[in-house]
Design brief:
There is one protein chain. By secondary structure, the chain is an alpha+beta fold. The chain contains 3 helices and 8 strands, in the order αββββββββαα.
């Protein structure tokens, strides 16, 4: 009798857990390669690609002089936090909204939209030393032109 009650309680807890998970939905992931596809903050902006690896975000910009830089980040709920000082201090906090294959970072001044990139010779390949900077630079330039930046 005690084992039957225990079994019923466990099944009930599993059901409640499943119902809560379906109501909340799965967290959208931002890990991967992205490029800026829209920027309402700046009318004239440079092409940029980003790679989120789960702890660091790496940015590669077309101007000035094709710069690669990184920053710590945390992503919780609908907030994106940029971190510094060994991930102890928050530098900026942004609202983040997911769409199909894109996400938007919202600020008081406007929106920056990132679109997921697929393929090879991406920023993640460069950061993990799978390709040379020259090989990445050629592919980056092709993607930049394909996306309307010159």
């Amino acid at each position: 009798m005690t084992s039957q009650i225990l079994l019923i309680m466990l099944l009930s807890l599993n059901l409640v857990s499943c119902l809560n998970a379906s109501r909340v939905g799965q967290k959208k992931e931002i890990v991967g390669n992205w490029f800026i596809s829209k920027n309402t903050i700046l009318e004239n902006y440079y092409y940029q690609e980003a790679y989120f690896d789960g702890k660091e975000v790496y940015f590669f910009t077309s101007q000035p002089n094709q710069i690669l830089f990184s920053n710590g980040y945390a992503y919780e709920g609908d907030k994106l936090y940029f971190l510094t000082n060994e991930r102890k201090d928050t530098v900026n906090t942004f609202s983040l909204k997911h769409h199909d294959g894109t996400f938007e970072i919202k600020t008081d001044n406007g929106v920056i939209e990132y679109t997921r990139m697929m393929g090879d010779k991406t920023l993640s390949d460069l950061v993990t030393d799978q390709i040379s900077k020259e090989s990445f630079g050629e592919a980056f330039s092709e993607r930049m032109k394909k996306n309307g930046f010159y």
